[in-house]
Amino acid sequence: MEELNIWDLDIVNIKLNPQFINRINKAIDNNYLSKVSFIRGLCQENKLNFDFIKNIIKLSFKLFSPLGCWLAICKKLNIPKEILQSNIQSYKTSGGINFIELPILPIKITPVFDMLLAHNIGDGTVINPKKGRLPYFGYRQFDKFYRISYIRKIEEIFGKIKFKENYFENSTRPYCPPTLSSLFFKYYNLKIIDFNSEKARVPEIIYKKGKESMLAVLIALVIDEGHIDSTQITINLKNPLLIEDLHKICDNLSYSSKVTTSKKEYEKGYSRIHILRKGMKKFWRDYIKINKKYPIIDLGWKGEKIENSFNIYKRAIYKTKGNKNIIFEILKNEQLSVNQLSDRINMTRQGVRFHIQNLLKEGKIRLINSNELNWIYGIK
Q: What pTM does this model have?
Protein backbone atom coordinates (compact mmCIF):
# COMPACT_ATOMS: atom_id res chain seq x y z
CA MET A 1 0.00 0.00 0.00
CA GLU A 2 1.34 3.41 -0.95
CA GLU A 3 2.09 5.75 1.96
CA LEU A 4 2.80 9.47 2.27
CA ASN A 5 4.42 11.31 5.15
CA ILE A 6 3.81 14.54 7.01
CA TRP A 7 6.63 16.22 5.07
CA ASP A 8 4.74 15.49 1.83
CA LEU A 9 2.13 18.06 2.92
CA ASP A 10 2.41 21.80 2.36
CA ILE A 11 2.77 24.60 4.97
CA VAL A 12 2.28 22.39 8.03
CA ASN A 13 2.42 23.43 11.67
CA ILE A 14 2.59 20.73 14.35
CA LYS A 15 2.33 20.01 18.07
CA LEU A 16 4.64 17.36 19.51
CA ASN A 17 4.46 14.87 22.36
CA PRO A 18 6.06 16.63 25.39
CA GLN A 19 8.15 13.52 26.06
CA PHE A 20 9.71 13.87 22.62
CA ILE A 21 10.51 17.53 23.28
CA ASN A 22 12.24 16.35 26.47
CA ARG A 23 14.23 13.89 24.37
CA ILE A 24 15.31 16.71 22.04
CA ASN A 25 16.45 18.87 24.94
CA LYS A 26 18.44 15.99 26.44
CA ALA A 27 20.07 15.32 23.06
CA ILE A 28 21.08 19.00 22.86
CA ASP A 29 22.50 18.92 26.39
CA ASN A 30 24.41 15.70 25.70
CA ASN A 31 25.94 16.79 22.40
CA TYR A 32 26.49 20.56 22.67
CA LEU A 33 28.17 22.84 25.14
CA SER A 34 24.96 24.82 25.51
CA LYS A 35 21.53 25.30 23.98
CA VAL A 36 22.69 28.72 22.79
CA SER A 37 25.48 27.23 20.68
CA PHE A 38 23.14 24.59 19.25
CA ILE A 39 20.43 27.09 18.35
CA ARG A 40 22.91 29.60 16.93
CA GLY A 41 24.43 26.97 14.62
CA LEU A 42 20.99 25.67 13.60
CA CYS A 43 19.73 29.15 12.75
CA GLN A 44 22.81 30.03 10.71
CA GLU A 45 22.55 26.80 8.70
CA ASN A 46 18.82 27.07 8.04
CA LYS A 47 18.15 30.83 8.19
CA LEU A 48 15.85 30.46 11.21
CA ASN A 49 15.02 32.95 13.96
CA PHE A 50 17.03 32.41 17.15
CA ASP A 51 14.35 33.57 19.62
CA PHE A 52 11.66 31.53 17.93
CA ILE A 53 13.67 28.28 18.05
CA LYS A 54 14.62 28.97 21.68
CA ASN A 55 10.90 29.24 22.52
CA ILE A 56 9.51 26.23 20.64
CA ILE A 57 11.85 23.75 22.31
CA LYS A 58 10.51 24.79 25.74
CA LEU A 59 7.90 22.51 27.30
CA SER A 60 5.90 25.62 28.20
CA PHE A 61 5.40 26.47 24.51
CA LYS A 62 1.81 25.36 23.69
CA LEU A 63 1.24 26.74 20.20
CA PHE A 64 1.61 25.05 16.81
CA SER A 65 5.01 25.53 15.21
CA PRO A 66 6.36 24.93 11.68
CA LEU A 67 7.20 21.37 10.72
CA GLY A 68 10.26 22.64 8.84
CA CYS A 69 11.83 23.91 12.06
CA TRP A 70 11.45 20.54 13.75
CA LEU A 71 12.81 18.68 10.74
CA ALA A 72 15.89 20.91 10.85
CA ILE A 73 16.31 20.33 14.61
CA CYS A 74 16.01 16.55 14.25
CA LYS A 75 18.41 16.47 11.30
CA LYS A 76 21.06 18.34 13.28
CA LEU A 77 20.58 15.93 16.22
CA ASN A 78 20.61 12.84 13.94
CA ILE A 79 17.06 11.92 15.02
CA PRO A 80 15.25 10.18 12.12
CA LYS A 81 12.37 12.22 10.79
CA GLU A 82 10.19 9.10 11.01
CA ILE A 83 10.63 9.28 14.81
CA LEU A 84 9.57 12.92 14.71
CA GLN A 85 6.49 11.94 12.69
CA SER A 86 5.48 9.26 15.19
CA ASN A 87 5.47 11.88 17.96
CA ILE A 88 3.17 14.40 16.27
CA GLN A 89 0.03 14.87 18.37
CA SER A 90 -1.76 17.24 15.99
CA TYR A 91 -1.14 19.36 12.92
CA LYS A 92 -2.76 22.02 10.77
CA THR A 93 -2.15 24.50 8.01
CA SER A 94 -0.10 27.52 9.03
CA GLY A 95 -2.65 30.19 9.90
CA GLY A 96 -5.53 27.68 9.74
CA ILE A 97 -8.21 27.16 12.38
CA ASN A 98 -9.23 23.52 11.99
CA PHE A 99 -6.60 20.95 12.92
CA ILE A 100 -6.06 17.20 12.79
CA GLU A 101 -5.69 15.54 16.16
CA LEU A 102 -4.67 11.93 16.74
CA PRO A 103 -3.25 11.95 13.20
CA ILE A 104 -2.85 8.79 11.15
CA LEU A 105 0.78 8.90 10.02
CA PRO A 106 2.12 7.92 7.61
CA ILE A 107 -0.93 8.58 5.41
CA LYS A 108 -2.16 5.44 3.64
CA ILE A 109 -3.42 5.91 0.09
CA THR A 110 -6.45 3.60 -0.13
CA PRO A 111 -9.50 3.65 -2.43
CA VAL A 112 -11.11 5.94 0.16
CA PHE A 113 -8.50 8.57 -0.78
CA ASP A 114 -9.45 8.17 -4.46
CA MET A 115 -13.13 8.40 -3.51
CA LEU A 116 -12.52 11.73 -1.78
CA LEU A 117 -10.97 13.06 -4.97
CA ALA A 118 -14.10 12.03 -6.88
CA HIS A 119 -16.36 13.74 -4.32
CA ASN A 120 -14.36 16.91 -4.79
CA ILE A 121 -14.90 16.58 -8.54
CA GLY A 122 -18.60 15.74 -8.18
CA ASP A 123 -20.05 18.13 -5.61
CA GLY A 124 -16.88 19.88 -4.58
CA THR A 125 -15.73 23.44 -5.05
CA VAL A 126 -12.23 24.86 -4.71
CA ILE A 127 -11.86 27.91 -2.50
CA ASN A 128 -8.84 29.94 -3.54
CA PRO A 129 -8.04 32.34 -0.67
CA LYS A 130 -5.79 35.36 -0.64
CA LYS A 131 -2.19 35.11 -1.78
CA GLY A 132 0.04 33.04 0.47
CA ARG A 133 -2.75 30.70 1.62
CA LEU A 134 -3.43 27.24 0.26
CA PRO A 135 -6.58 26.51 -1.77
CA TYR A 136 -8.98 24.03 -0.19
CA PHE A 137 -12.09 22.00 -0.98
CA GLY A 138 -15.65 22.72 0.02
CA TYR A 139 -18.17 19.91 -0.48
CA ARG A 140 -21.70 21.12 -1.22
CA GLN A 141 -24.05 18.42 0.03
CA PHE A 142 -27.57 18.93 1.37
CA ASP A 143 -28.06 15.34 2.49
CA LYS A 144 -26.84 15.05 6.09
CA PHE A 145 -25.78 11.40 5.81
CA TYR A 146 -23.56 12.03 2.78
CA ARG A 147 -22.28 15.29 4.27
CA ILE A 148 -21.10 13.61 7.46
CA SER A 149 -19.83 10.64 5.47
CA TYR A 150 -17.54 12.99 3.52
CA ILE A 151 -15.90 14.14 6.74
CA ARG A 152 -15.68 10.58 8.05
CA LYS A 153 -13.79 9.58 4.89
CA ILE A 154 -11.30 12.40 5.45
CA GLU A 155 -10.86 11.23 9.05
CA GLU A 156 -10.46 7.63 7.89
CA ILE A 157 -7.38 8.72 5.94
CA PHE A 158 -5.91 11.53 8.04
CA GLY A 159 -7.23 11.32 11.61
CA LYS A 160 -9.80 13.17 13.69
CA ILE A 161 -10.47 16.72 12.50
CA LYS A 162 -11.11 19.29 15.19
CA PHE A 163 -13.78 21.52 13.69
CA LYS A 164 -15.93 24.06 15.46
CA GLU A 165 -18.55 22.18 17.47
CA ASN A 166 -21.18 20.55 15.19
CA TYR A 167 -19.77 22.58 12.30
CA PHE A 168 -19.98 19.91 9.63
CA GLU A 169 -23.39 18.66 10.78
CA ASN A 170 -25.06 22.04 10.43
CA SER A 171 -23.27 23.48 7.43
CA THR A 172 -24.26 22.25 3.98
CA ARG A 173 -20.69 22.77 2.80
CA PRO A 174 -18.08 21.10 5.01
CA TYR A 175 -14.48 21.92 4.20
CA CYS A 176 -11.41 19.78 3.78
CA PRO A 177 -8.59 21.60 5.67
CA PRO A 178 -6.10 23.29 3.31
CA THR A 179 -3.06 21.22 4.24
CA LEU A 180 -5.04 18.06 3.41
CA SER A 181 -6.61 19.52 0.27
CA SER A 182 -3.17 20.43 -1.04
CA LEU A 183 -2.14 16.77 -0.93
CA PHE A 184 -4.81 15.88 -3.50
CA PHE A 185 -3.48 18.54 -5.88
CA LYS A 186 0.07 17.26 -5.42
CA TYR A 187 -0.63 13.52 -5.51
CA TYR A 188 -2.78 13.63 -8.67
CA ASN A 189 -0.78 16.48 -10.24
CA LEU A 190 -3.86 18.71 -10.57
CA LYS A 191 -4.51 22.45 -10.63
CA ILE A 192 -7.51 24.46 -9.49
CA ILE A 193 -8.89 24.59 -13.03
CA ASP A 194 -8.92 20.78 -13.12
CA PHE A 195 -11.86 20.83 -10.70
CA ASN A 196 -14.01 23.02 -12.95
CA SER A 197 -17.36 21.19 -13.28
CA GLU A 198 -17.25 21.35 -17.09
CA LYS A 199 -13.57 20.40 -17.43
CA ALA A 200 -12.83 17.92 -14.63
CA ARG A 201 -11.44 14.53 -15.62
CA VAL A 202 -10.66 11.25 -13.90
CA PRO A 203 -6.83 11.27 -13.51
CA GLU A 204 -5.02 8.58 -15.50
CA ILE A 205 -3.47 7.17 -12.34
CA ILE A 206 -6.92 5.94 -11.22
CA TYR A 207 -7.12 3.46 -14.09
CA LYS A 208 -3.62 2.19 -13.32
CA LYS A 209 -4.34 1.69 -9.62
CA GLY A 210 -6.89 -1.02 -10.32
CA LYS A 211 -10.43 -2.16 -9.73
CA GLU A 212 -11.04 -0.85 -6.20
CA SER A 213 -9.87 2.68 -7.01
CA MET A 214 -12.02 2.86 -10.15
CA LEU A 215 -15.02 1.48 -8.28
CA ALA A 216 -14.55 3.97 -5.42
CA VAL A 217 -14.51 6.86 -7.92
CA LEU A 218 -17.65 5.57 -9.64
CA ILE A 219 -19.48 5.12 -6.31
CA ALA A 220 -18.65 8.71 -5.34
CA LEU A 221 -20.12 10.05 -8.60
CA VAL A 222 -23.23 7.87 -8.14
CA ILE A 223 -23.67 9.42 -4.68
CA ASP A 224 -23.14 12.98 -5.90
CA GLU A 225 -24.68 12.94 -9.37
CA GLY A 226 -26.49 9.63 -9.85
CA HIS A 227 -30.18 9.02 -10.42
CA ILE A 228 -31.41 5.49 -9.69
CA ASP A 229 -34.52 3.72 -10.86
CA SER A 230 -35.54 0.13 -11.38
CA THR A 231 -33.77 -0.28 -14.70
CA GLN A 232 -30.52 1.70 -14.50
CA ILE A 233 -28.24 4.17 -12.80
CA THR A 234 -27.92 7.44 -14.70
CA ILE A 235 -25.29 10.14 -14.22
CA ASN A 236 -26.04 13.34 -16.12
CA LEU A 237 -23.27 15.96 -16.39
CA LYS A 238 -22.42 19.02 -18.43
CA ASN A 239 -19.03 17.47 -19.02
CA PRO A 240 -18.95 14.97 -21.91
CA LEU A 241 -15.30 14.07 -21.31
CA LEU A 242 -15.93 13.15 -17.68
CA ILE A 243 -18.88 11.02 -18.80
CA GLU A 244 -16.53 9.26 -21.22
CA ASP A 245 -14.10 8.70 -18.34
CA LEU A 246 -16.88 7.04 -16.34
CA HIS A 247 -17.78 4.97 -19.39
CA LYS A 248 -14.15 3.83 -19.53
CA ILE A 249 -14.35 2.81 -15.87
CA CYS A 250 -17.55 0.86 -16.54
CA ASP A 251 -15.88 -0.92 -19.46
CA ASN A 252 -12.83 -1.74 -17.33
CA LEU A 253 -15.07 -3.13 -14.60
CA SER A 254 -17.31 -5.00 -17.09
CA TYR A 255 -20.44 -3.00 -16.22
CA SER A 256 -22.92 -2.91 -19.09
CA SER A 257 -23.42 0.79 -19.87
CA LYS A 258 -24.06 3.30 -22.63
CA VAL A 259 -23.57 7.02 -23.19
CA THR A 260 -26.30 9.29 -24.57
CA THR A 261 -26.74 12.99 -25.21
CA SER A 262 -29.97 14.92 -24.95
CA LYS A 263 -31.39 16.92 -27.86
CA LYS A 264 -33.53 19.06 -25.54
CA GLU A 265 -32.54 22.72 -25.52
CA TYR A 266 -32.46 23.01 -21.71
CA GLU A 267 -30.00 20.09 -21.57
CA LYS A 268 -27.68 21.41 -24.25
CA GLY A 269 -24.11 20.35 -23.56
CA TYR A 270 -25.09 17.56 -21.19
CA SER A 271 -24.14 13.91 -21.57
CA ARG A 272 -25.34 10.88 -19.66
CA ILE A 273 -23.92 7.53 -18.77
CA HIS A 274 -26.43 4.80 -18.10
CA ILE A 275 -25.31 1.78 -16.10
CA LEU A 276 -27.82 -0.71 -17.45
CA ARG A 277 -29.62 -3.31 -15.39
CA LYS A 278 -27.10 -6.07 -16.07
CA GLY A 279 -24.31 -3.65 -15.17
CA MET A 280 -26.19 -2.57 -12.04
CA LYS A 281 -26.17 -6.14 -10.75
CA LYS A 282 -22.42 -6.52 -11.12
CA PHE A 283 -21.88 -3.01 -9.74
CA TRP A 284 -23.93 -3.97 -6.69
CA ARG A 285 -21.99 -7.19 -6.12
CA ASP A 286 -18.69 -5.32 -6.35
CA TYR A 287 -20.01 -2.59 -4.04
CA ILE A 288 -20.92 -5.15 -1.37
CA LYS A 289 -17.34 -6.47 -1.45
CA ILE A 290 -15.66 -3.07 -1.20
CA ASN A 291 -18.11 -1.95 1.51
CA LYS A 292 -17.09 -4.95 3.64
CA LYS A 293 -13.43 -4.06 3.22
CA TYR A 294 -13.95 -0.30 3.66
CA PRO A 295 -17.27 0.24 5.52
CA ILE A 296 -16.92 4.02 5.10
CA ILE A 297 -17.55 3.51 1.35
CA ASP A 298 -21.30 3.57 1.86
CA LEU A 299 -23.95 4.30 -0.78
CA GLY A 300 -26.47 5.15 1.94
CA TRP A 301 -30.08 5.53 0.82
CA LYS A 302 -29.03 5.31 -2.82
CA GLY A 303 -27.69 1.85 -2.07
CA GLU A 304 -31.04 0.92 -0.55
CA LYS A 305 -32.72 2.21 -3.69
CA ILE A 306 -30.51 0.05 -5.90
CA GLU A 307 -31.20 -3.01 -3.76
CA ASN A 308 -34.94 -2.33 -3.77
CA SER A 309 -34.88 -1.97 -7.56
CA PHE A 310 -33.91 -5.63 -7.83
CA ASN A 311 -36.99 -6.58 -5.81
CA ILE A 312 -39.32 -4.90 -8.30
CA TYR A 313 -38.84 -7.67 -10.81
CA LYS A 314 -39.70 -10.26 -8.19
CA ARG A 315 -43.21 -8.83 -8.04
CA ALA A 316 -45.86 -9.48 -10.67
CA ILE A 317 -46.77 -5.82 -11.05
CA TYR A 318 -45.16 -4.75 -14.29
CA LYS A 319 -48.28 -4.03 -16.31
CA THR A 320 -51.04 -5.51 -14.17
CA LYS A 321 -54.40 -3.91 -14.61
CA GLY A 322 -54.86 -2.95 -10.97
CA ASN A 323 -51.84 -0.69 -10.93
CA LYS A 324 -53.47 1.68 -13.39
CA ASN A 325 -56.18 2.33 -10.82
CA ILE A 326 -53.58 2.85 -8.08
CA ILE A 327 -51.80 5.43 -10.23
CA PHE A 328 -55.07 7.17 -11.06
CA GLU A 329 -56.05 7.39 -7.37
CA ILE A 330 -52.65 8.87 -6.46
CA LEU A 331 -52.88 11.47 -9.25
CA LYS A 332 -56.29 12.57 -7.98
CA ASN A 333 -54.53 14.08 -4.99
CA GLU A 334 -51.03 14.85 -6.27
CA GLN A 335 -49.21 15.92 -9.40
CA LEU A 336 -46.24 13.60 -9.98
CA SER A 337 -43.73 12.44 -12.56
CA VAL A 338 -43.19 8.91 -13.84
CA ASN A 339 -40.08 8.62 -11.68
CA GLN A 340 -41.91 9.77 -8.56
CA LEU A 341 -44.74 7.32 -9.19
CA SER A 342 -42.22 4.55 -9.81
CA ASP A 343 -40.63 5.18 -6.42
CA ARG A 344 -44.00 5.53 -4.70
CA ILE A 345 -45.43 2.17 -5.74
CA ASN A 346 -42.15 0.26 -6.23
CA MET A 347 -42.76 -0.31 -9.92
CA THR A 348 -40.59 -0.02 -13.04
CA ARG A 349 -40.64 3.24 -14.96
CA GLN A 350 -41.70 1.33 -18.06
CA GLY A 351 -44.67 -0.10 -16.19
CA VAL A 352 -45.73 3.31 -14.86
CA ARG A 353 -45.28 4.89 -18.28
CA PHE A 354 -47.45 2.15 -19.84
CA HIS A 355 -50.32 2.97 -17.48
CA ILE A 356 -49.81 6.74 -17.81
CA GLN A 357 -50.19 6.46 -21.60
CA ASN A 358 -53.44 4.50 -21.20
CA LEU A 359 -54.81 7.00 -18.68
CA LEU A 360 -53.95 9.84 -21.08
CA LYS A 361 -55.75 8.05 -23.95
CA GLU A 362 -58.79 7.55 -21.74
CA GLY A 363 -58.78 11.24 -20.88
CA LYS A 364 -58.59 10.61 -17.13
CA ILE A 365 -55.34 12.53 -16.60
CA ARG A 366 -53.37 15.21 -18.42
CA LEU A 367 -49.83 16.48 -18.76
CA ILE A 368 -49.48 19.31 -16.23
CA ASN A 369 -45.95 20.50 -16.91
CA SER A 370 -43.55 19.51 -19.68
CA ASN A 371 -40.89 22.10 -18.89
CA GLU A 372 -39.26 20.05 -16.11
CA LEU A 373 -36.67 17.31 -16.56
CA ASN A 374 -39.43 14.87 -15.57
CA TRP A 375 -42.88 15.57 -16.97
CA ILE A 376 -45.57 16.07 -14.36
CA TYR A 377 -49.02 14.48 -14.60
CA GLY A 378 -52.33 15.09 -12.79
CA ILE A 379 -56.09 14.75 -13.19
CA LYS A 380 -58.07 16.81 -15.70
A: 0.83
